[in-house]
Amino acid sequence: MSVKDNALNFLFPLSPATRVCYAPSMVEPEARTSRIAIALGFLAVLAVGGGGFLLGKTFAPPAPQQETPATPVKPAPLPAENPLLARGDLITLANRSADAFANGQPLPLDVRTAVGRRFDILLPFGCDGPSTETREHRAYWTYEEGRSRLRVEAKPAEWTAQDWNLGDAPALKGATLQGIEGFWITRPWSSEGTCAAHPAPPASAPVPTAAAEETPKPASDQNLPANLPGEPEETLAIAQFFTADGAPGIRRSGRPYSIVARIAPDQFNAAQGFRLRLTGRIDRTPTGEPVQCVQRGGADQRPACVIATVLDEVRVENPATSATLATWSATHTAR
Questions:
Q1: Which residue spans within 285-331 are E strands per DSSP?
Q2: Backbone phi, then psi, for 33, in 5-degree steps?
Q3: CB 84 within 8 A of CB 50
Q4: Which pLDDT band holds residue 279 (cuts at 50, 70, 90)?
Q5: What's the number of CA atoms in the CB half-sphere (13 Å) around residue 108?
Q6: N or C: which end of the chain has fewer CB within 10 A?
């Protein structure tokens, strides 16, 4: 046993069976050889791990690609529908037509392109209270308070082709104009579909003295017309022109729009009267234009104009409650 073995046995005493003995042929590994072995083992681990990584990457399913959300495409704006023409719009069409006619000019483009536009207008009537007599081509109402019975009647005006200078209209050649029916628009300077606000009458009128009667009036006052009550100004009408091949509309053939209904006295206001609501669309006169004007009294008289229409519905309404009292339509009877 060598000195080395004796030293180990002395430091770590063991039983005789377990004592370390080195055979003369056993050689300890050198440090360089150990480092090479460790390096080779490390390289082997890297090779195995890298190969496994490459194999796994090759056969693994591809990762789902994250889709970029598409930028939402805003839909193209729909063309705006033409709004309904109101009472004021029809008055504007007539005023522009009257101005062009008085100056010998064609109708403005915005008037000519109004054909087909829909309208909804109000025609107030009976603003002075119940009538005791009927007036031709006028709407009126009566009321029996004891029986709470309301009677309303509105008779359309009727014209001939000559009334509107349509005798030589190209559209009438070979065709028959069966009739013209419509309504005058009272107070054609107001766009409101309500009765006028009546001013309060003066408390008392001063009695002129003899000196006042002898005082001459200024020259400007001598040319003013007297303020006498007269018939309503009839310078604007809406009418249906009935031909054999034209739109049907609502034709009364001389019959008025008439209703009789029971209504309590507190359910309407006599100062507000009643109103007609007309709905339909702008049409063409036999001349092909939507508006026809005439000037019977000469160049110093305001032209009277008619707007061609096709009525879809006529209503009688109570402005105090906005209730519909009766309806006539192009396809249904009154209700």
A1: 291-294, 304-318, 323-329
A2: -65, -40
A3: no
A4: very high
A5: 14
A6: C
Distance CA 176, CA 228 (A): 42
pLDDT in tens, 54-95: 655 565 566 666 666 667 777 766 656 678 999 999 999 999
Provide the pairing of β-strand 274-282 with 291-294: unpaired
| Helices marked H in the chain | 3-11, 31-59, 87-102, 109-112, 210-214, 219-222
Give the rounded distance of the alpha carbon of 223 from its chain centre.
48
Q: Which residue is it, tokens 């206001």?
A: 269
- Distance from C-alpha of 241 to C-alpha of 83, rounded to nearest angstrom: 24
90: tokens are: 């029809």
- CB-based contacts of 34: which residues, under 8 Å, 6+ apart? none
User: Do 152 and 141 touch, CB atoms closer than 8 A?
Assistant: yes
**Which pair of tokens denotes residue 212?**
């006042």
- Number of alpha helices (DSSP H) and beta strands (DSSP E) in the chain: 6, 11
Average the pLDDT over 257-272 and give the result: 95
Q: Choose between 224 and 31: higher pLDDT.
A: 31
Q: Which amino acid is at 264?
A: A
DSSP state of 298: -
* Residue in the structure block whose two tokens are 């519905």: 313
- The pTM assigned to this predicted structure is 0.67
* Residue-wise DSSP of 197-231: -PPPPPS-PPPPPHHHHHSPPPHHHHTSPP----P
Identify the residue whose tokens are 């930028």: 71
* Residue ranges per structural domain of the chain: 3-47, 87-193+232-329
Q: Which residues pair with 243 in a beta bridge?
A: 177
Element (H, E) at 325: strand 323-329
- 275 CB-contact burial (10 Å; exposed 0-12 / middle 13-18 / buried 19+): buried
What does the pLDDT look like over 113-143, one tens digit per residue?
999 999 999 999 999 899 876 665 589 999 9
Query: Could you report the per-residue pLDDT of 31-61, keeping only the tens digit for each?
Result: 666 677 677 766 766 666 666 666 555 655 6
